[in-house]
Design goal:
By secondary structure, this protein is mainly alpha-helical. The chain is built from five helices and three strands. It has two domains: 121 residues, Bordetella uptake gene, domain 1 (D-Maltodextrin-Binding Protein, domain 2, 3-Layer(aba) Sandwich); 29 residues, no CATH class.
Amino acid sequence: MQRLIACLSIVATLALAASARADDYPSRTIKIMTSSSAGGLSDIFTRVLADRLRARLNQTVIVENRPGGAANVAIGACAAAKPDGYTFCVIEGDALFYNQYLYKNLTYDPNKAIEPVVNLFSIIQALVVNSDLKVKSVDELIALSKAKKGTLS
């Protein structure tokens, strides 16, 4: 929770810093795009962020979900957005990096179209198994899967 608050503080500070350059910023709705579908982790985080920015900037902040295409839909929309400080994107850094090697025909140039600003949050993934399996490593899980072919799911 402390990390979330710290990240929100950073984004709010960036937004306030931008307003120091332009006295009338923000003068209209701010949009934050995310590559997550509604209810996904990135969506929830982005909605909390939008609520905090809305209160801090006294301006409407909307969240626009752009799921699909291994985040290419959201990244492409973000890359095509007018660079006026009113559209922000919360996307997976992994997708921004890896998709250029996985997909031949991207609608954006990942090295020019998007400029990462800050890592807002990290998702830790883990491989877990039922403790009744009595395996303590990936190698043991693979060996068990081979020994009991077709019985593990």
